[in-house]
Write a structure and sequence with these properties.
single chain, alpha/beta, 39% helix, 16% strand
């Protein structure tokens, strides 16, 4: 779908409602002019949000619909998943809040697949409680990978700093065995294409971190850099992808280093997310790269300790919304550009012209 004159339909899953999810959602939507920029579609409960908006003294009016396809531009739309009363216990995960987190995510994802919404922004979930209730994944990324039958890449982004992680939510003891040359090559390719297509970077420069301290110190502290990471980088470099490294992770995140690159591939979760959240906690956005659909989330968790206190900062969630919108528009424009470039070739092939011949000979 072209982005021209199209008001992006932003689906929002509410996460665990006993955390700060509803608070940061409503605070992100409280400006009366917000619907001039996009059409919000929340997958939740009218009674729940009415109760919580009164706690936070927010003046919001929702347009209740049964399906996302009924959402109206210019309104705060709510797909009402239940008309029953909801028991709210702010700061405490419950079976009811966990079930609604799953129901909201699944309903929003189905709407995304059907095309009733354009992008999906997910509020924080409690992974442990969801797994206890039968949810099969240790986070959103694995869930979307299964739903879309495509490998995703956890990609934390701000305007100035972008960090992906090679391995996601797995124990540290299993990180090394889950790193391979082929996986790293695939992930760098995904990063390369994502930067071009979704973030409008013409010639991406990608830094790759080492796995071991000091990037292995030439094999003294580990061999993964020599046997796996460096060969992957070299093979891609030979094919024109600007990948560099492996760099020692302990000294890489200095302003005069990371700013020389458009993105960073870290080897494991905390290696990438610890410096990212230190440098960009309030504005950071979690984007799942490599999927056919666009999904973002804030880069923080459910924050039970501050739930209901009206002190949660909505900036990361707001950034997640507008990052999703920007990516949708960038991806649409890129698709239009590629289609326009391919059209002359298609016409030529249809007319029996060999495109490999010179276009024209001078007299």
């Amino acid at each position: 779908m072209s982005s021209k004159n199209h008001k992006v339909r932003v689906g929002i899953s509410i996460g665990d409602f006993n955390g700060i999810g509803p608070e940061i959602i409503m605070k992100s939507l409280k400006d009366k002019t917000i619907t001039d920029f996009f059409t919000p579609v929340i997958f939740g409960s009218g009674k729940l949000f009415t109760y919580q908006k009164n706690i936070f003294k927010l003046n919001l009016n929702f347009n209740y619909v049964n399906e996302a396809s009924q959402a109206q531009a210019g309104k705060l739309n709510m797909v009402n998943l239940t008309k029953e009363n909801v028991n709210v216990e702010l700061g405490v995960p419950t079976e009811e809040s966990t079930k609604m987190a799953i129901d909201s995510l699944e309903a929003a994802t189905e709407a995304l697949i059907r095309g009733d919404i354009d992008v999906l922004v997910t509020a924080p979930i409690n992974k442990d409680e969801m797994v206890k209730m039968g949810f099969k994944h240790a986070g959103h990324t694995g869930y979307f990978e299964e739903k879309f039958s495509k490998k995703g890449l956890m990609f934390l982004v701000t305007e100035d700093l972008k960090v992906a992680v090679s391995t996601h939510h797995i124990p540290i003891a299993k990180v090394a065995e889950n790193i391979s040359k082929e996986n790293i090559k695939k992930q760098i390719r995904v990063l390369h294409q994502t930067l071009i297509e979704d973030f409008r970077v013409q010639k991406p420069k990608i830094a790759v971190l080492g796995l071991n301290p000091h990037a292995g110190d030439g094999g003294v502290i580990g061999s993964e850099e020599i046997e796996i990471i460096s060969p992957a980088i070299q093979e891609l470099s030979d094919h024109g992808i600007l990948a560099f490294g492996p760099f020692p992770a302990d000294s890489f995140f200095q302003p005069n280093k990371y700013r020389n690159f458009d993105a960073v591939l870290a080897m494991y979760h905390d290696q990438g997310l610890a410096p990212f959240k230190t440098l960009a906690y309030e504005e950071g956005v979690n984007y799942t790269a490599g999927l056919p659909f666009i999904r973002t989330s804030p880069d923080h968790g459910v924050a039970y300790d501050i739930a209901g206190k009206n002190i949660a900062d909505e900036q990361s969630f707001t950034e997640a919304i507008f990052t999703a919108i920007d990516v949708f528009k960038n991806r649409s424009e890129y698709s239009d550009l590629m289609n326009n470039r391919l059209q002359p070739r298609k016409m030529a092939v249809d007319n029996g012209i060999d495109e490999d011949l010179p276009e024209e000979s001078e007299a």
